[in-house]
Fold these 2 entries.
Entry 1:
Amino acid sequence: MPFQSRRRLLTSLCLSALVPLGHAQSQPAAWPAKPIRIVVAYPAGGVSDTVARALADKLAVQLGTAVVIENKAGASGSIGVDAVAKAAPDGYTLGFASISPLALNPHLGKSPFDPQKDIAPVISVMYSPVLLLGTPASKARDFRDLLATARAKPGEIRWTTSGPASLGHIMLEQIMASAQVQITHVPYKGGGQQMNDALGGQFEVLSTNAGPAVLQHVKSGKLKALAVGAPARLDSLPDVPTLAELGLPAANMSSLFGVYAPAQTPAAVLARLNAEFNKALAQPDIRNKLDATDNVPTGGTAAAFARQIALESENNARIIRSAGIQGN
């Protein structure tokens, strides 16, 4: 072979060998290649923050990278979720919040993000049951007795929630519509004052998320558990029926919490995150931590979580329209 021909052949082979290398260099680095941030949409120190930090610790070990928590509270969780919606869709910013910023808040006013276009659900983590509690001012023996009193004396029973257009308010409106009773809604702005007034008998009923402090008041007899919004009865209160058992399935709501990512996050990264969070939720110490606070671990696929959000959003929109509920 002539020298020039051999030279052209060698040059061609060398260039061909360089193509895969150049292609490989253009590919993104394997995920994760740097620390992951989880934005918790509530203040530090609460149950949701505690659970998020426990999951972050597990994820750090499983993925071999740091996982840090950043608290961004406000606007019933919308501020934290908005921070996730506006983050780079690279798998390094996640959010932890209830589904209310996606399924409830947008129906009550302008949302800073589009729940369907800006957020990718990753996994359902837990549901927090909602307890309906009788105070020292209530004479009701059980929930049916409470409804009987409400029918006999319209508007006399005072029922407090954490605020107007809150999940507790939505539940109350659904109960009144389904049971055809009239109950006076008393919205509060803070759980601390609400609990103090409940123990002092300033009203008859309050709705609040389950937790160790609430359970302690029930066990001591200061408050009476009348019903619970949850898919099933709580192990800690096995004699307390769910609203579904009491014939009010539409009002049988609980606070569902989960993990979110920015929309357009690569599908492979979302799938890996879902698998790693499911693995973490299966660990006995995580499940024990949730059980100790009366929160129930869930898990499952991202698609199932997205369907739950869509269904609750649809139900909330209907209830809000029917009851004429206005946002803050």
Note: The domain at 36-127+255-323 is CATH 3.40.190.150 (D-Maltodextrin-Binding Protein; domain 2).
Entry 2:
Amino acid sequence: MKKIIKIINLILLATALTFSVTACGQAAQAAGNSNASSEGGSNVTIKVGANITPHSEILEKAKPLLQEKGIDLEIVKLEDSITPNTGVIEGNLDANYFQHVPYLEQFNEENGSDLVSIGAIHYEPFGIYAGKTNNLKSLPDGAVVAVPNNVTNEARALLLLAQEGIISLNESAGINATVEDITDNPKNISFKELAPEQLVQALPDVDIAVINGNYAIEGGLSVKDALAVEKNDGLAAKTYGNIIATSPSKANDAALLTLVEVLSGEEIKKYIEETYDGAVIPLK
């Protein structure tokens, strides 16, 4: 009888060991599957609002570079200079790429917002383009000059006109210059303030227009055709770099910081230099 009981106990022990080994194997397999899922999981997606030219085009070039880093980039193309910021504020966009810091600061002040820059990518030289007058030396008395109608870009236009000796500005005005800071206007020019995206269309109706680089490109203008362009080593180049902007809560977001890293990399810099022929200049 004792021998039978001993045999039964041995059978039960063997059975228990078999269940234990099987359970361990299943657990290990489950853990392995879990790790594989984590390593091969879906990419992080970021949604970025951008002007069509050149910002969206540059972002398209960055897409495959970001995918290699586990980030899917969704580009929302916007033509105005308001909705890219309101989209970030409302949470419809993670970030935007279309503006410079002075414009961002002006927007924040006027709208009670607190958007921040997480990196400057490129600079677009402002140019003076011919309308009815095709030479700055031939600018007639009482000429009409079209300029952007927002504060920061109008100041930039005035600085370029001053650079070319068309007007003189109060030396202390700097990037905050307004028409009130004009100290000398020998040609008695008058200013026609228009939305930046309307300046190219207005050329037939004005003597000259001072136009943002991106809108000039969209309108089929080449910076090489400009009557004058901002100096690359001047105040404008140091001030008006186009940035990636986002909300303070996402300022340290890993995916957005990777976006800035990719856009600042050599491959994107080379693309900008080869594509825009001086109309867009990568920041070093």
Note: The chain has ten helices and 13 strands.
